[in-house]
Amino acid sequence: MTDEDIRIGVFVCHCGTNIGGVLDVPSLAEYAKTLPNVTYSADNLYTCSEVGLTEIKENIKEHELNRVIVASCSPRTHEPLFRAICQEAGLNPYLFEMVNIRDQDSWVHMKEPEKGTIKAKDLIRMSVHKAALLEPLERIKVSITPSAIVIGGGIAGMTAALNLGNQGFEVSLIEKEKELGGLLRSLNKVYPSNEDASKLLETLDLIESHEKIKVYKSSVIEKVDGFIGNYKISVKQNDKTIEIDAGVIIIATGAIPLTPDGLYGYNKKNIISQLDLEKLLKADQISSNNITMILCVGCRNEVRKYCSNICCMTAMKNAMLIKEKNPNAHITILFQDIQASGTVYEKYYRKAREMSILFIKYLPEKPPIIKKGVVKVYSDSLNQEIEIPQDLVVLSTPLIANEDSDKLAKMLKVPLEENNFFLEAHVKLRPVDFATDGIFMCGSAHWPADIAESTSQANAAASRASRILWKDTLEVEGSTAEVIEELCIGCEACIKICPYKAITKDEITDTAIVNKVVCKGCGLCGASCPKKAIIIHHFTGDQIRAEIFAYGGGV
Ligand code: SF4
Ligand code: SF4
Asked: What's this model's pTM, rounded to 2 decimal places?
């Protein structure tokens, strides 16, 4: 296409007073008319309104525009809308360019509107120069295998599997142990309802008899290939290997309670863990009258800095259960801080105090000392050491990540955080997603979670996954990376830096290849390639140079 054939339309938005109250918007539209290849330009009160969008469509047709620029708010929120409008008017959506003159201009230069207007002119001029070099791009369509793999058969995995199965999707539930149920099998009762854990295990029957759910017990994941909509997983079950296809994967591998070996004389007579206590309570074998529970054993220290989230409530639950059976029991809980967030858990904590369970705060630098028949602890609030008679000491330890998390994370190409729990894409905006599309997580695989949290996360993950599974095909981003084979020397710099693991090496040509379905067009590989062998479509070297030139050199 020659310069004469390029017809750019520029639409400058007031965004009410957001932009219009600061910048001289009509003068920006007038300025745009003076720029090369601009055939039409106008200002609108709200470009994203029905009126504004109709105006874009009509002017594309009337002025035969083949490039459109909207100077307005953030592409993060509005680019998809404007691209869709261009497409409706018959224009390739990648022939659209957006200039952010609100968040990056009028909002930050409110007190210097003249300078803000000059900056907006610079930004629009840069965009016009880039727009002239834009190329039409195609979004790739991927077919979706309408089934899911859930890894881990504890409460989170079972809930996610049941949710998806009930929606009518085929689910393969992979459990490494001989039975489903995970940690739930070791528990006596669950807080805050204090109902029997075995009651929750009734879900097992629903799962094992569900026509849409296939359970693979004593099975481990051996290999994962593919991408969103088209995963292929090899599962080893005893000595046979099973291949499973699925559109999405949910990780629900849970966590394990730390055994307090070497801490506070664990395993000596009458020094047990909270998990041991659960088993004794389940078997109705608790007869001690003086019980001291020590919280934060093996965590919130140099080795494990984190709070395990569930131990305070578990200790309170077990203390109350003992008190209900034996009102004469003296139970003391030694804590560093109490984690009982929300009104329900706060009420539970108050109830424990009303039942005369004693709570004493200890300082991490002065931990309790267990002697024969007593626990000695320094109370900061009383400023003195207290001796508490004991005939049973219970240690509350944290949940820690599964040993095989690292191996699974590598196979799935998803990240772990510093304690080896799986790391979400965004703590607030995408809490059960990975950055890699099509893989989700829930329960304690992500972070120590109780039953209520695990089940709500499992339903969230299943619901996120079903958004993909309900579709026959998925359209993925057209603005991706491409390797020029002739220039690539196979150094693998791009493979190492790609955060989405979208690049592999072609065994035959010994050069890098990009999986366009997985690539997000972030540009990291392009910036890292020593041979300039990577084109980032929609952000090519020529396009970015044109913008820089337009800024420095003007028109
Ligand atoms: Fe090839 Fe460049 Fe990747 Fe190296 S960084 S493998 S040269 S594309
Ligand atoms: Fe990976 Fe980003 Fe390069 Fe795509 S553009 S291959 S996501 S580094």
From this structure: 0.81
